[in-house]
Write a structure and sequence with these properties.
This protein is an alpha/beta fold. The chain has a single domain, classed as Rossmann fold (3-Layer(aba) Sandwich). The protein is 43% helix and 16% strand. It is built from 7 helices and 7 strands. Strands 3-2-1-4-5-6-7 form a 7-stranded parallel beta sheet, sandwiched between helices. Helix 5 links the parallel strand 5 and strand 6. Helix 1 crosses helix 7 and helix 3 packs parallel to helix 4. About 6% of the residues have low confidence.
Length: 247
């Protein structure tokens, strides 16, 4: 598959877990990876794995909780690669603290990273994509909590619920610039919302069959949906939450 070849994908929170897997999956399709995280500890390993697989990647160590670091990061990405075609907002923090015990700093830090980060990334990258004539953005929501609350996760789940609303609002605003904005989430009981856009469940699987060499890691369902939402096969989808059913 050539549609992702030589595109540039900026992935926040790419130092580990699903963020790393998304980077490796895009790498296997020829995408250049601008990998972001808050420190080098894990991020260098992500970049190393991508380079060992024959891909191109560069590390960008910035805290995405504030607008100015995001501006600085994007300026470097543009200096190095000249464009951004895909944005994946994966970075997040999840303090385990009850409502009665959480302090003000922890609460605001959670909102700054999980909600403010995606907002300013979409704002800054959106301006670049507008000049380029379009692009795709995907926000990674909570892997739980869309239907059920969890003790000690009030701030985290509130931030992710806000991110869903932000996704839908951004999709509406940016659609006129050919910028698609969607979200992915893993839950235990929800099903995919492809039908709301006239797509059948088989659409995703047919698309995956056309890219048999893609690396999907330990979370193939979630990662494959990120890839799908950034592809031309999903060109009619924007403002949607695509969920992964486990069990």
């Amino acid at each position: 598959m050539q549609e992702f070849a030589d595109m540039v994908a900026l992935i926040t929170g790419a130092g580990r877990g699903i963020g790393r897997e998304i980077g490796l999956a895009f790498c296997s399709l020829g995408t250049v990876i601008a990998a972001n995280d808050i420190n080098h500890i894990n991020l260098d390993e992500t970049v190393s794995q991508i380079q060992q697989a024959g891909g191109t990647a560069k590390a960008y160590v910035f805290d995405v909780a504030k607008r100015m670091p995001i501006e600085a990061m994007l300026a470097q990405v543009l200096d190095h690669f000249g464009r951004v075609d895909i944005l994946v907002n994966h970075a997040s923090v999840a303090p385990d603290e009850s409502i009665l015990e959480m302090d003000e700093w922890e609460f605001h830090r959670t909102l700054d990273v999980n909600l403010g980060g995606p907002f300013f990334c979409m704002q800054q990258v959106g301006r670049v994509m507008r000049r380029q004539g379009g692009g795709a953005m995907v926000n990674v929501l909570s892997t739980s909590g869309q239907l059920h609350a969890h003790k000690g996760q009030a701030a985290y789940q509130a931030s992710k619920a806000g991110l869903l609303g932000l996704t839908r609002a951004a999709a509406r605003e940016l659609s006129e610039y050919n910028i698609r904005v969607n979200a992915v989430c893993s839950v235990t009981t929800e099903i995919d919302l492809f039908h709301s856009q006239g797509l059948e469940f088989g659409a995703l699987h047919q698309w995956l069959e056309s890219i048999p060499n893609v690396r999907l890691g330990e979370h193939p369902d979630l990662v494959s949906r990120v890839l799908f939402l950034c592809s031309e096969s999903a060109c009619s989808l924007t403002g949607r939450l695509i969920t992964v059913e486990y069990g």
